[in-house]
Write a structure and sequence with these properties.
By secondary structure, this protein is mainly β. It contains one helix and eleven strands, in the order E-E-E-E-E-E-E-E-E-H-E-E. The strands form two sheets. Strands 2, 4, 5, 6, 9, 10 and 11 form a seven-stranded mixed β-sheet that branches. Strands 1-3-8-7 form a four-stranded antiparallel β-sheet, with no helix packed on it. Strand 4 and strand 5 form a beta hairpin.
Length: about 130
C-alpha cells in the first residue's frame, strides 16, 4: 500500500512558475514509478510526466515537454513537478500517482501512463491572467 499526498497548489499569474510536491509513504517506494496527471473542469484526466524511482528515467507528455519537469528527492520521499511559464489553460486539479515500476523489467511508459494503481487526492492550481 502506498499513500500519496500532494501539496504546493495555489493561485498564480500567467507566466509564473510553481512547484508541486508529492509525499510518498509506504513500503518499497523504490519499486514504483511515479507520475503527475491533471484534470481541468469538464475535461478528461491528462498525463503530464512520470519518473522511474530506481532508474531516474523520465517521460513527458508532448504538451508539457520543456516547460514542466519531474524530479525526485529520495531523502524526503517526494516527487516534484516544476511548472514554468504557466498559462491559464494549466488551471486544473493536479494528481500524483504510483504504479509498480514496469520500466525496471523492460516495460513501456504506456503501462505507467495507462495503469496507475495509487492516487493522491490532488492539489488545485489556478492560473489567473
Amino acid at each position: 500500500q502506498v499513500l500519496l499526498v500532494e501539496s504546493g497548489g495555489g493561485l498564480v499569474q500567467t507566466g509564473d512558475s510553481l512547484r508541486l510536491s508529492c509525499k510518498i509513504s509506504g513500503r518499497a517506494v523504490s519499486s514504483y514509478a511515479m507520475g503527475w496527471f491533471r484534470q481541468a473542469p469538464g475535461k478528461e484526466r491528462e498525463f503530464l510526466a512520470a519518473i522511474s524511482w530506481t532508474l531516474d528515467s523520465k517521460y513527458y507528455a508532448d504538451s508539457v515537454k520543456g516547460r514542466f519537469f519531474i524530479s525526485k528527492d529520495s531523502a524526503e520521499n517526494t516527487v516534484n513537478l516544476e511548472m514554468n511559464i504557466l498559462k491559464s489553460e494549466d488551471t486544473a486539479a493536479y494528481y500524483c500517482a504510483a504504479k509498480l515500476d514496469p520500466i525496471l523489467y523492460g516495460g513501456r511508459w504506456s503501462e505507467v501512463v495507462d495503469g496507475m494503481d495509487y492516487w493522491g487526492k490532488g492539489t488545485l492550481v489556478t492560473v489567473s491572467s
